[in-house]
């Protein structure tokens, strides 16, 4: 498998998660990096893109969002962020 997830892939999947949560009327969604990466593909595996996944998750945070858990080194499969819904434009 030569395909590698891009930042665009992670952003688009996060947007889908936000839209699903908003459709359900949720006030927030908790996203764990390992689960997000599995949804996008390529994880677990030798060519995983976990640092990029975590970077995108953090870059999409807004003021009211919060990091609930993070691995000791900052990037890893256990990064968990609570994103408030609905998202501001």
What integer value in Å does the Rg equal?
13 Å
Q: Can you list the strand order of the major beta sheet?
A: 1-3-2
Q: What order do the helices and strands follow?
A: HEHHEE
**Main sheet characteristics:** 3 strands, antiparallel
The averaged pLDDT comes out at 94
| Distance separating the two termini | 36 Å
Tally of structural domains: 1
Question: What structural category do the secondary elements indicate?
Answer: alpha+beta
Number of continuous helical runs: 3
| CA-based shape | globular
Fraction of residues in helices? 25-40%
| Number of strand elements | 3
Low-confidence stretches: none
Query: Which range does the strand content fall in?
Result: 15-25%
What do these coordinates show?
- The protein has 89 residues and is an alpha+beta fold.
- It is 39% helix and 16% strand.
- It contains 3 helices and 3 strands.
- The model has no long low-confidence stretch (mean pLDDT 94).
């Amino acid at each position: 498998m030569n395909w590698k997830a891009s930042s665009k892939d992670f952003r688009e999947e996060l947007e889908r998660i936000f839209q699903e949560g908003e459709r359900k009327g949720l006030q927030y969604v908790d996203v764990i990096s390992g689960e997000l990466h599995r949804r996008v593909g390529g994880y677990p595996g030798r060519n995983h893109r976990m640092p990029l996944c975590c970077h995108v998750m953090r870059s999409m945070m807004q003021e009211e969002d919060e990091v609930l858990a993070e691995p000791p080194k900052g990037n890893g499969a256990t990064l968990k962020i609570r994103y408030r819904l609905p998202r501001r434009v």
